[in-house]
Amino acid sequence: MRGTVLQIVVDRLPDGRKPTKDLWLWHAGPVEVDLDLVDLLWKAYLRRFDQEHFHRFAKVYLGMARAHLSSAQATDRWMHLIMAAYAQLRLASPHVDDLRRPWHPRPEPGRPLSPYRVRLGFRRLRAKLGTPAGSPKLTRPGPGRPKGSRNRPKDKRPPYRKTVTTGNEHRE
Predict the structure, then answer these.
(1) Distant-in-sequence, close-in-space partners of 25: CB < 8 Å, separation ≥ 6
(2) Which residues lie within the region annotated Disordered (predicted)?
(3) What phi and psi, each to the nearest 5 degrees, are found at residue 55?
(4) Host H or E run for residue 160
(5) Which of 147, 88, 97, 86 has the alpha carbon at shortest distance from 124?
């Protein structure tokens, strides 16, 4: 199979760490590789980690893998619900307290919380926000059935019978 092996040498990483080793990528495409394509390939390789983490989070914590749906439309609706839940977690990030586990590191100041951490504190946020509905009215139970009345009998329906076929005959 024809392809191109690319060696990516990184001088420095965005967070200030020094890279430990070079990145080797294999590209199954045209042999002539220009610099724009090399740039696109290594950026796409780095973005795959974001996608893998999203899919793991959606499967484990948002229930993407739990639904066993019979139709493509139902699966599509389920995926829309998963994406809406993920968007809610992203939007709620500035409003949620950091309820980190003891083994989690402290978040950097000014950096938004991850969806996992937002999910930990989402229950408290819901209590802070309240609800648009008013408080329930206090009522007494209704009068019930009048004394002396009886249950009305249900309407008689004809029984449902399947037709059984044996050979060329039809029986009911």
Answers:
(1) 5, 6, 8, 41, 42, 45
(2) 128-172
(3) -65, -40
(4) none
(5) 97
